[in-house]
Amino acid sequence: MEEKKLDRRIRKTKQSLFHALTKLMSKKKINNITVKELTDLADVNRSTFYHYYRDIFDMVDKIRTEFIDDFSKTYDKFSKEATTYDDLLSFFIYIFEFVQINAGIFKIFLCDDMDYTFIEKLKDAIKHYEIPLDDTSSELEAHYCMPFIISGCIGVIQQWLNNDMNASPKDMASIIVKML
């Protein structure tokens, strides 16, 4: 019982820090954010922050890694099953819902400061999967197909975020699947 309480407190503390960081990063560049203003906004002691992170950049890196891991798990789950139009549609609906739920951080990583580390890690997380191509595709075409598709999908997600997610995840998923 005590373990669960502790886990919940840790999660709440990290969540509070995360929300404060998201809010600050929407207003200023990461280089201009101090641990003091972050912890003040999150209502957390600085020593608590340093218990979990070395500095702001370490926190951002851990958040980035956590999001990539979550995305990879989602991709793993769906990519092996996605063989039909409906499967692909379900997969992309889930992806757009994931982005929508986490829009604050995705907007920061993909749009505001163009976090190329995040984009490259995202590409690396999914580039080893293969998309079924028709039998007439050459080995050279197959080699370049996945990076093209990944970059296109990231571009569509960026555009969607920049347009304040003015279409539903289902509509966006449908657009992507039609393009594939």
The share of residues in extended strands comes to under 5%
Largest sheet: none
Q: Give the low-confidence spans.
A: none
Main structural class: mainly alpha
Keywords: DNA-binding
Protein name: Transcriptional regulator
Pfam families: TetR_C_8 (PF14278)
GO molecular function: DNA binding
SSE blueprint:
Layout: H1 2-25, H2 35-42, H3 46-52, H4 56-79, H5 85-101, H6 103-112, H7 116-126, H8 139-162, H9 169-179
Helix pairs in contact: 1-2, 4-5, 4-7, 5-9, 6-8
Compact description:
Residues 11-71 form the HTH tetR-type domain. Helices cover 76% and strands 0% of the residues.
Features:
180 residues, mainly alpha, Arc Repressor Mutant, subunit A, 2 domains, 76% helix, DNA-binding, Transcriptional regulator, DNA binding, TetR_C_Firmicutes, Homeodomain-like_sf
What does this structure look like?
By secondary structure, the protein is mainly α. The protein has two domains: 1-53, Arc Repressor Mutant, subunit A, CATH 1.10.10; 63-179. The protein has nine helices and no strands. The protein has helices at 2-25, 35-42, 46-52, 56-79, 85-101, 103-112, 116-126, 139-162, 169-179. Helix 1 (2-25) crosses helix 2 (35-42).
